[in-house]
Amino acid sequence: MTVQDFIQIILFLGILTILTPVLGNYMYKIFTGRRHFMVTVLGWPEKLIYRLTGIDPYEETNWRVYTFNLIMFNLVGLLLLFAIQLLQSKLPLNPAGLPNVPWHSAFNTAVSFMTNTNWQGYAGETTLSYLVQMTGLTVQNYVSAATGIAVLLALIRGISRRSTDMLGNFWTDLIRSILYILLPLSILLACILAGQGVVQNFKEYETIHTLEGAGQVLPMGPAASQIAIKQLGTNGGGFFNANSSHPYENPTPLTNFLELLAILLIPAALTYTFGKMVGSTRQGWTIFIVMLILFISGLAISLFSEYSAHTIFGNIPLMEGKETRVGITSSVLWSISTTSASNGSVNAMLDSFSPISGMLAMINIMLGEVIFGGVGAGLYGMVIFIILTVFIAGLMVGRTPEYLGKKIESFEVKMAIVAILVPNMVIQIFSAFASISVPGISSLNNAGPHGLSEILYAYSSAAGNNGSAFAGLNANTLFYNLTLGLGMLAGRFGVIIPVLAIAGTMAKKKITPESSGTFRTDNWLFVCLLIAVIIIIGGLAHFPALSLGPIVEHLLMNNGMTF
Amino acid sequence: MKSLLRTVIIFLILTILTGIIYPLLVTGIVQLLFPEKANGSLIVKGNKICGSELIGQQFDSLAYFSSRPSSVLYNPLPSGGSNYGLTNRKLVNLVTERKNKFIVSNYLDTLTVIPSEMLFASASGLDPHISPEAALLQVKRIVKYRGFSPEQRDKLSDLIKKLTEEPQFHLLGQARINVFLLNLSLDTIK
């Protein structure tokens, strides 16, 4: 690593930290209905939408209605996306003349984008028309991110309100997130990206003759608009198969830096919004610091592994599956960011990373993507871990656990356990099943322990709604499309429903005034406890599987073994 | 039933907003501001399009600088990497093979350290760049194959210097050279 590499990392984390209170405060104003100039500018479409749909923005609902509206909305989106893929060849904006998508692939893709996973079993440029990419995928990029924010807002209201049933209005949360946050940021980012060379047009694919006279077909399409929201909404689904390593998605070091920043921007800023909304920015910064410590630890180990001497290739830098304009440091930084968040876009092929670097990406997902995490999803996942931490701390000192004045009782703890267990069970059970079944194994691209890593990564990615992959695994088969689709559904709603249930019961409670006996949740002791709980509860369950995959591969590789 | 209908209407309105208005608005803005970039950074030679500045091309001829190895042979439909793990024997063999080939075809000493991007395939399979070092190692072959005079050789060295892109803002990324643009200019050396 050079000095310049370190400067790039420090610059990245520095800008992220500076933007956190700026954007966080803006989102606080939007979500609490305070006056803001953006509301004056963009207020009329909001009012127009309410008029057209008959939504009363001041009407609030309890958690059951909130959850019902959320699930209905996502179900409608799922079915429409499924349908337009099946009918693609009959619909307009298909200049490449692509055929209808097979049903199991269409199911997988529809679930994948609806759940904010953006796992891609298909290759964009040879599978989906411009119409599906725009009105199907881009739309889901927005609404799935906004759904995540809505769940978080309901949870924050549950924590900060007292003696009430009401958690807010799902529709206004959804619409405001899109209109005031995701849309303006995406327009800005998309224009910058296109200025650097990301394609944005509706032309036919360009057939050219290379300097040597061979034919080459250059794919086109409205990519910049989709890539902006794919990063900002922690979606991650590429317009092209090679995702953000494709020169048309990520043409320069500047686009690489900005896209990287866009991945973590909103999740990081939401910690500040959280602090403001619960009445103590210190609480928000505590969470931010926990996330930052976990992030830097993972990054350090991953960089160390990737830059270590690899005798098997004569100690040369590992450029397999990496782009020259990006380089190794930014590839590793991206892999840690995209898996900390539930983004899942890649600018280098994770399958070809050193085993330990690949494992770090996997661990970030297995921990529940709470290190900044998905838009909304990361922070509500973190609150789940906070509930467990205060519960465990309460057990240790023999007091009723509390968080921000709310008593944590058996129902909340049970729900928190469900939210942690469901994704973890999906990872373990589905991976175990796939690795002993014929259709599971026949899709592998690599033999030996790396093959197990491919399977383990796929189900982690699905259950964590991440979407990145050890992409050698051929997942576009009936078996993987269906099992991964189910895994994504369980991983999304197996967490959202318990979180909303916790929000519902928390809102009903009174707030106990702070006293000298209150266990503080905004100091360094709590930071350490929370990190320990995340690693022990979230990570340790996967240690046996990881030791059979990447860890044993690392040891064998250092002994010169190949498969 | 009423709530289902309302949900569908809301979804359709959001589809129009984010799936139609948003991409069209962005397309309009960038087609106005940066039409060349937004249309694929295409390069015209004579009166024909001969490639994109951003998309690499396969160069098999000894008269041209070689691009990085590509697992899709620079065919963008679809793009992608090899996805070989480091313990995959195929990868180990490929690296040895590419190394030998690079040394022999460029008349290099067997102990030359070859920049690793020339031994490993890129992520997209379309990487247009190599390091300036990797370009310099190929100069001898180009000069020999094209029968360049010492003067032309100097022109080639200047060209490599001129086309080397420094890190953006002297900060982001690393020094690199675009093989396609290099070969395009190489043909103009008379």
Order of helices and strands of chain B: HHEEHEHHHEH
Average pLDDT score of chain A = 94
Helix content of chain A: 55-70%
The fraction of residues in strands of chain A falls at under 5%
Count of the domains of chain B: 2
Brief sketch in words of this structure:
Chain A is mainly α. Helix content of chain A is 64%, strand content 2%. Chain B contains seven helices and four strands.
Describe the structure.
- The complex is a heterodimer of chains A (563) and B (190).
- Chain A is mainly alpha-helical and 563 residues long.
- Chain A has a domain at 3-206 and 218-279.
- Chain A has helices at 3-31, 37-53, 63-86, 103-114, 124-127, 130-160, 170-196, 223-232, 253-277, 281-307, 327-340, 355-366, 377-397, 410-435, 438-441, 449-463, 478-508, 524-539, 543-558; strands at 206-209, 215-218, 402-403, 406-407.
- The radius of gyration of chain A is 23 Å and the shape is globular.
- Chain B is mostly helical.
- Chain B folds into 2 domains: 1-39; 41-186, no CATH class.
- Chain B is built from 7 helices and 4 strands.
- The longest helix of chain B is centred in the first third of the chain and has 32 residues, at 2-33.
- The mean pLDDT of chain B is 94.
- The chains are: A mainly alpha (563), B mainly alpha (190).
- The interface between A and B is large, with 120 and 95 residues.
Q: How do the strands and helices of this protein lay out in sequence?
A:
The complex is a heterodimer of chains A (563) and B (190).
Chain A: H1 3-31, H2 37-53, H3 63-86, H4 103-114, H5 124-127, H6 130-160, H7 170-196, E1 206-209, E2 215-218, H8 223-232, H9 253-277, H10 281-307, H11 327-340, H12 355-366, H13 377-397, E3 402-403, E4 406-407, H14 410-435, H15 438-441, H16 449-463, H17 478-508, H18 524-539, H19 543-558
Antiparallel strand pairs in A: 1-2, 3-4
Helix pairs in contact in A: 1-9, 2-7, 3-4, 3-6, 3-17, 4-17, 6-7, 6-8, 6-17, 7-8, 7-9, 8-9, 9-10, 9-11, 10-11, 10-12, 10-18, 11-12, 12-16, 12-19, 13-14, 13-18, 14-16, 14-17, 16-17, 16-19
Chain B: H1 2-33, H2 35-38, E1 42-45, E2 48-52, H3 89-105, E3 129-130, H4 132-136, H5 139-146, H6 150-163, E4 177-178, H7 179-186
Antiparallel strand pairs in B: 1-2, 3-4
Helix pairs in contact in B: 6-7
